[in-house]
């Protein structure tokens, strides 16, 4: 649906500055996601860190003409002569208000889903259950925030027959806003957990806040057996129907009479509003899935879906995979595997992800897509939209798989390189498949097409041991540290040592996308790798080698300079190349006594030397705390800081341009916020470990492997080299394909350390070998092929470093290169 800009101005109650012509179909809040500039309205949002107004000139250059702004300097009307500006007092509120007006155009059932867990699964399953008979519009992925909800609601269109939207809140007052946008006619409360509890005084307050979404609904589905929810719903004044479900109380709307689990499925017998009992089966056996299916059942029955229909559809429910994974593939390819439901909105999000990740030159961006199922949209229009999205988001090669895509192949005529196959098998046996090389491939297939076969063929044969890295967690950690910093303070992200073991290239892509000011690596080669992979961010080299200067200049990598010897050599090399004004970072030694200029003795000579030449200029000056992680060094830290200031101020005094001062590392950002100065350097904290408490607060990586073989070993036998693993009673011993060559420290052997098998501790028995280790799984329910966690969410890496009497930095950076890194976002 589109709106004229005049109509939007009148809905928002504001005037238009500039042109009054044109119409808007897309709303944009993140300039990086632009796709259809001509029909896009950009909302310049101001957050603590960023200001959307800064992107107006870039967006204007890319063809955007419609802007919602909070300020309008008079020169803009000249500067952007073809633009239309809507000036409002808050862009965020304008976005919310516009979405609310759009919502008012629809007189259809709209389901609002909230709760601490299960929102997304319930939303997706409702979609799976309803979309065969109705046209459903729903929130893409988990767009449930103050910005995500208006963007979701905007997707409602003329064809929509049912809307399903998720609402998520983290503090009081937010739900009211979301209610006014979603205006649900039916409510679903899934469960209450303790996520985001910090902003509420009690669980009851949180429950009541969530219920605010439902003040005007006709009916509310909720778990009656949860006492707190029941009492809040009971005392909550609303006129709609209360559709509680219970396994205990027969008087509720939906009584669950029986739940029978078998090995792979669960059959649930229920009585709906005192009618005759019936049952259905789902292909899941975990309690969360069972609860979520019951919630969906209640809602579908209320909407009038027939019991027989539900009985037929429930067994077909598919797991909701939220993951989008990045893996190294064969023949120079990278795979982006998005297992999330295949529909156009999630396709767009995945395409945006691919498009926004920089890449080295020459690699094609390829989309392999199956037929989009469960869409009630007219196929022709759907595939035309798919093709135009793919094109706009930079897809250069298209592989369509499925009969429907073959029928609509003409829609893809604008993509030069394209081919179509009825099945994955057909594609696998084609030349097109054999000739794939050096491409970034986005795989997006509906489950029934069996894209696993394709992934298996394309991925490098993975050693069973992998390090899984969660890119969202990196972003969360980045934002957490940013929230401790003043908005104007710049940030260096330390991605030396292959990003503390996580893999510097993919981490750098994510950080660049989130606009950090600098990336820092140890040596020039690491910087070159980043550049070759498309990283354009400022890059700092902490330990430049004398032999690498030419590389630094060629790839625009800014070295740290810590000694006169290095300084002289660098100046000489730069002069030889005819370079002027190359930025460098001056390190001052304030007590670490590792590298750096002496802030008292060396500084005059340093200034003198820098002033005498013009090949390089000091971009920043910095020093490093010896002990910001411990209070016991606070006095020493103060001394260090004073020394730094003395030297740095003197340096700055000698130059007219601004020189950035920085000293805080992760622990410093937290412990010495008043010492942030111009910039901070974030290391370990980015990876989810708090150096001050030595605790993992948000793990980003998990080292995992699988059981190769299990055997019983009788009492008295020994396990492993040198007969070290003496077995004192009959035991079950499993072998796992990870050894000290993978970075599993040998000192964890002989029962000093353990890993987790199905959540249970399994000690390392005997000496750890080069490629294999043996663990004691006696009494643990497990089989060959089961997953083993070496460290991760359930076994923090700090547990390992404590046992080894070292620091988590060492354990993380020891994970060897042969362990494949798999990146995902959820
Ligand atoms: C590694 C490093 C950091 C980051 O330290 P963390 O303790 O990991 O935050 C900061 N500054 C310099 C100079 C470093 O070498």
Strand elements, count:
43
Give, in spatial order, the strands making up the sheet with the most strands.
21-20-19-22-18-17-43-23-34-42-39-40
Give the radius of gyration.
Answer: 30 Å
**Which bin fits the share of residues in helices?**
25-40%
Based on the structure, what is the oligomeric state of the protein chains? single chain
CATH topology of the largest domain: TIM Barrel
Any guess at the CATH architecture of the largest domain?
A: Alpha-Beta Barrel
Please give the CATH class of the largest domain: Alpha Beta
What's the pLDDT, averaged over the residues?
93
How many discrete structural domains? 5
Main sheet? 12 strands, mixed
* Shape call: globular
Stretches where pLDDT is under 50 for at least 5 consecutive residues are none
Percent strand equals 15-25%
CATH superfamily of the largest domain: Alanine racemase
Describe this structure in words.
By secondary structure, the chain is α/β, with parallel strands linked by helices. The strands form eight sheets. It has a twelve-stranded mixed beta sheet with strand order 21-20-19-22-18-17-43-23-34-42-39-40, with helices on both faces. α3 (76-79) links the parallel β6 (66-69) and β7 (84-87). The longest helix is centred in the C-terminal third of the chain and has 20 residues, at 634-653. The chain is globular. It starts with a strand and ends with a strand. The model has no long low-confidence stretch (mean pLDDT 93). The protein binds pyridoxal-5'-phosphate (PLP). Residues 494, 542, 624, 665-667, 681-685, 691 line the site of pyridoxal-5'-phosphate.
């Amino acid at each position: 649906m589109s709106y004229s800009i005049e109509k939007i101005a009148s809905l928002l109650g504001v005037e238009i500055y500039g042109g009054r012509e044109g119409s808007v179909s897309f709303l944009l809040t993140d300039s990086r996601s632009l796709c259809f500039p001509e029909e896009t309205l950009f909302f310049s949002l101001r957050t603590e860190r960023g200001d959307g107004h800064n992107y107006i000139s870039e967006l204007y250059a890319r063809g955007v003409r419609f802007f919602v702004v909070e300020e309008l300097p008079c020169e803009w009307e000249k500067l952007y002569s073809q633009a239309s500006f809507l000036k409002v007092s808050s862009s965020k509120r304008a976005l919310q208000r516009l979405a609310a007006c759009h919502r008012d155009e629809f007189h259809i059932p709209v389901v609002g889903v909230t709760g601490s867990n299960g929102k997304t699964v319930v939303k997706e399953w409702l979609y799976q259950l309803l979309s065969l008979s109705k046209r459903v519009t729903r929130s893409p992925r988990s767009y449930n925030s103050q910005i995500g909800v208006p963007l979701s609601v905007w997707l409602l269109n003329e064809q929509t027959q049912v809307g399903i939207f998720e609402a998520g809140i983290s503090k009081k007052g937010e739900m009211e806003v979301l209610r006014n946008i979603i205006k649900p006619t039916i409510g679903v409360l899934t469960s209450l957990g303790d996520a985001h509890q910090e902003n509420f005084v009690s669980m009851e307050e949180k429950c009541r806040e969530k219920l605010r979404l439902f003040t005007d609904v006709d009916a509310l589905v909720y778990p009656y057996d949860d006492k707190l929810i029941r009492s809040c719903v009971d005392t909550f004044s609303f006129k709609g129907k209360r559709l509680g479900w219970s396994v205990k109380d027969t008087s509720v709307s939906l009584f669950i009479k029986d739940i029978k689990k078998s090995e792979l499925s669960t059959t649930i017998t229920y009585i709906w509003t005192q009618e005759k009992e019936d049952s259905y089966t789902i292909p899941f056996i975990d309690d969360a899935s069972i609860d979520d299916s019951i919630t969906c059942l209640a809602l579908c029955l209320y909407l009038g879906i027939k019991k027989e229909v539900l009985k037929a559809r429930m067994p077909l429910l598919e797991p909701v995979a939220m993951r989008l994974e990045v893996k190294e593939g064969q023949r120079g390819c990278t795979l982006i595997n998005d297992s999330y439901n295949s529909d156009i909105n999630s396709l767009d999000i995945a395409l945006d992800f691919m498009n926004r990740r920089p890449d080295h030159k020459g690699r094609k961006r390829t989309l392999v897509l199956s037929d989009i199922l469960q869409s009630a949209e007219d196929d022709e229009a759907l595939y035309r939209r798919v093709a135009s999205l793919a094109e706009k988001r930079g897809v250069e090669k298209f592989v369509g798989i499925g009969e429907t895509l073959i029928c609509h192949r003409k829609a893809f005529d604008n993509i030069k390189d394209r081919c179509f196959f009825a099945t994955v098998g057909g594609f696998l046996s084609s030349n097109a498949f054999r000739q794939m090389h050096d491409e970034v491939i986005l795989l997006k297939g509906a489950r029934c097409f069996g894209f696993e076969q394709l992934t298996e063929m394309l991925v490098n044969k993975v050693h069973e041991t992998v390090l899984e890295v969660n890119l969202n967690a990196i972003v969360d950690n980045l934002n957490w540290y940013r929230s401790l910093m003043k908005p104007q303070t710049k940030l260096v992200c330390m991605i030396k040592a292959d990003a503390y073991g996580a893999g510097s290239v993919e981490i750098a892509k994510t950080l660049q996308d989130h606009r950090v000011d600098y990336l820092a690596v140890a040596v020039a080669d690491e910087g070159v790798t980043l550049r070759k992979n498309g990283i354009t961010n400022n890059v700092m080299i902490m330990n430049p080698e004398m032999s690498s200067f030419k590389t630094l200049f060629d790839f625009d990598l800014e070295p740290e300079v810590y000694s006169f010897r290095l300084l002289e050599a660098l100046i000489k090399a730069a002069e030889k190349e005819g370079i002027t004004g190359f930025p460098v970072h001056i390190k001052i030694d304030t007590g670490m006594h590792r590298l750096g200029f002496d802030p008292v003795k060396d500084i005059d000579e340093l200034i003198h030397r820098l002033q005498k030449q013009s090949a390089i200029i000091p971009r920043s000056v910095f020093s490093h705390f010896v002990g910001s992680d411990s209070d016991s060094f606070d006095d020493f830290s103060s001394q260090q800081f004073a020394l730094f200031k003395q030297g740095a101020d003197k340096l700055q005094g000698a130059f007219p341009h601004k020189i950035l001062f920085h000293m805080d590392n992760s622990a410093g950002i937290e412990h010495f916020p008043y010492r942030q100065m111009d910039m901070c350097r974030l290391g370990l904290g980015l990876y989810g470990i708090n150096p001050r408490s030595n605790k993992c607060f948000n793990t980003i990586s998990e080292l995992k492997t699988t059981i190769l073989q299990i055997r019983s070993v009788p009492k008295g036998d020994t396990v492993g080299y040198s007969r070290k693993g003496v077995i004192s009673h009959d035991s079950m011993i499993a072998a796992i394909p990870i050894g000290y060559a993978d970075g599993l420290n040998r000192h964890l052997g002989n029962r000093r350390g353990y890993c987790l098998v199905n959540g249970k501790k399994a000690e390392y028995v005997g000496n750890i070998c080069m490629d294999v280790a043996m663990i004691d799984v006696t009494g643990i329910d497990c089989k060959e092929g089961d997953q083993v966690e070496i460290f991760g969410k359930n076994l923090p890496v700090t547990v390992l470093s404590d046992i080894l009497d070292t620091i988590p930095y060492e354990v993380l950076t020891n994970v060897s290169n042969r362990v494949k890194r798999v990146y995902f976002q959820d």
